[in-house]
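Protein modeling request. Please complete all fields; requests missing the sequence field cannot be processed.
Requester role: graduate student
Desired output: 3D structure, token encoding
Chains: 1
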Amino acid sequence: MPPGGIGLYDPLEYLYTRRSIRRYTNEKVSPEMIKEILLAGMAAPSTGNQRPWEYLVVDDREKMIEITKVHNLSESLKEASFGILVAANLNKLKYPADWWIQDCAATSQNMLIAINMLKLGGVWLGVYPYEDRVAGVRKIFGLSEDIVPFSMISVGYPAETRRSKKDYHEEIVHWNKW
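Delivered output (178 residues):
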């Protein structure tokens, strides 16, 4: 049976209904909700529990607009209640490989799911590996070279709705051999 075929509403629906929301109302998100989103991010798995991520919550409208000047796909920040910059602190790395990339992706996804569960909208705005975006965000926030901006998540109360995405494609699933 394809995923979600249970027939009852369950927490998996938050995965299927999570969509990229780029338009927001002017209602502010409470500090308590922001903390819940951050807690969800901190609950993500990471390589050897190295937890290299750090977060910068941005609700300064001028800073959010500055980001749109260095990130060509970040217009949603102009309407968002706030944004969360996910960055890797390279000083926290325990392993020589670039596992921090997967770790920061996991924390970003956890927050996006929490945003959906809280009936908010959000969108993942990739920063890394685009060097111009990385350099621009570093400059805006005065980040040192050992802090790598990975993603920016714009968040707010949705001013748009997107259809649920529940697409199971048997042709891309392989069992025991390719």
